[in-house]
Amino acid sequence: xxxxxxxxxxxxxxxxxxxxxxxxxxxxxxxxxxxxxxxxxxxxxxxxxxxxxxxxxxxxxxxxxxxxxxxxxxxxxxxxxxxxxxxxxxxxxxxxxxxxxxxxxxxxxxxxxxxxxxxxxxxxxxxxxxxxxxxxxxxxxxxxxxxxxxxxxxxxxxxxxxxxxxxxxxxxxxxxxxxxxxxxxxxxxxxxxxxxxxxxxxxxxxxxxxxxxxxxxxxxxxxxxxxxxxxxxxxxxxxxxxxxxxxxxxxxxxxxxxxxxxxxxxxxxxxxxxxxxxxxxxxxxxxxxxxxxxxxxxxxxxxxxxxxxxxxxxxxxxxxxxxxx
Length: 325
Fold this sequence. Notes:
This protein is of the alpha/beta class and 325 residues long. It has 2 domains: 215 residues, Rossmann fold (3-Layer(aba) Sandwich); 76 residues, Chorismate Mutase Domain, subunit A (Up-down Bundle). It is built from 12 helices and 11 strands. α5 crosses α8, α5 crosses α9 and α9 crosses α11. The chain is elongated.
């Protein structure tokens, strides 16, 4: 790492090196970089290339083309050309954005699934920043999220077929802007990032600047709040898992024991039981309904296929038989 880098650029490089060490990533590893050619991922690619050879993993840049604009394919190819100009091999993946939850959610799901497929077990690096963390906290707070949701973006996350690492999660976007200016990196801006059609863009362009003007340092404080929420959530989740094992009764749980637990633990146990059974988390309303069910018995439908049942003081999640025409 050169001593001639400007202080802020040098700090970004030091933060990246420290993050990779904490993830256990070094020169013997091969990683996939989720690379769009935008400012954040361009800065991460450049910084990875500037790490000391003894710390630098082998990087492949992968640009996911969501096909949401006519020029998205050409833009993705230009991004990979920039990566190759830095000596990094790359490829474009075209995905279809389909499913529940709107365009943003569908695009995210398709993107991570495609990255996991090509990674083949290699760690996946993304360029999420502290500003992204602040946006996510605000968005989830506005949606009424609990502690788990307010933990927002995790530095590390598991997904089927891989591990996602976010080494810039403690770095402000302004620092990456300085990196890009210093390095003279071509940045390929996605026009959808400036569209107020998307909620996250409106939070980034309108809400956060207004909040920063009213409360200087708000973005950094929100990112810090997410770290605190993650710590507390991890502790409560571990406690809930221990109680789950203690209260397990065959393929269900002791309903009376569940009722006696603090609400924070009982709700996590119920949520985890539903996720384990059906593969999807319940709504906050469904968790409340199940907690009420524990005291009176009976059953409630979670979806067309699954029901929560409390009978003979045993709580369980069961697949219901589908009626045929």
